[in-house]
Amino acid sequence: MPELSVPELLDLDRRHVWHPYGPMPGRQEPLVVESASGVRLRLADGSGELVDGMSSWWSAIHGYNHPVLNEAAREQLGRMSHVMFGGLTHEPAVRLAKHLVDMSPDGLEHVFLADSGSVSVEVAVKMCLQYWRSLGRPGKQRLLTWRGGYHGDTWQPMSVCDPQGGMHELWTGVLQRQVFADPPPVEYEESYADHLRSLIERHADELAAVIVEPVVQGAGGMRFHSPAYLRVLREACDAHDVLLVFDEIATGFGRTGALFAAEHAAVTPDVMCLGKALTGGYLTLAATLCTSRVADGISRGEVPVLAHGPTFMGNPLAAAVACASIELLLGQDWLAEVKRIEAGLREGLAPAAKLPGVREVRVLGAIGVVQLDHSVDMKAATGAAVREGVWLRPFRDLIYTMPPYVTGDADLARIANAVCAAAREG
Hints:
This protein is α/β, with parallel strands linked by helices.
């Protein structure tokens, strides 16, 4: 196909490409990105560059076109881009599993590599259900979570997303009915802790697991909550024979100011889901980690295998880049960079609190959120950010940023100005 002009690309895009969370054909014309480097997206129409305030949906923590990650991909391409994982193994996947076990909370010893974050949650749920079946307790098949959560767009993850007001409300009555606690408060409240304990105790005989996003609820509303609730869940799950799953797809690899949000509470879950930043935003890859208790329980069952095997499981190209991304992260003072970003966002977003229509401004680690008292005007808010030279992707009543960790102070200030401008006009 000959090289296409921007108008030709946009015409073909509108006729054939179905974008996420959008109708077909689309109603808003997307921006065409020609290339990306550092924290900048170069637009194909020649209008210039945009500072990326989203880390490409929270994944590109090292920015774009990074020489270390590029070299890891090139070197692995020279060996093999893919080989099936059934009956075979290879160094990139083994190294990656060792990295994840070494850096994750103590006790998580086994790694199942999957294709995407949503699939990692599917695998986590399957692990928990099969664990109890293997132990002769097939009635433990429901999940408990709290409202305001988001765990992905495939079937089981949709069932534990917020059932009211969330993007999956359409499937009410079709999805399995799970057990929902109230949304977690920001600060610790003993009454809410009792609410969690009571629900777990009441439903213990039918609960396979509790699954939550620790400390930060992501696409369900960008809410923060006290890490103390994670300890409450751990203690209640232990007391009533229920497994505990942490979905760290959005929070993993330093985003909250800890390598994993579970560390804020010094808690180890039975199962943990990872994705997004795992490969530094280069390739799709996810992982489900579990304890020996879970793995041994499944392996002693009537069906002693976890019957799940994606075609591209353990893809060596993705695994090699993930290893390089982890080594790059741990080889620098990532915590200092996240704290620098946190301080910059606190200062830069403070003026937004005084804007009409703003309900709350909140910052944690490399996450900055402005919540409005109304639904965002996507076109107006996005346009305002672009005029400031920044790419943002607001949703619902939220204008937020999760910048790459390599974002410099000047670009961070620009991102904060763009968030404020979007809040003002959106």
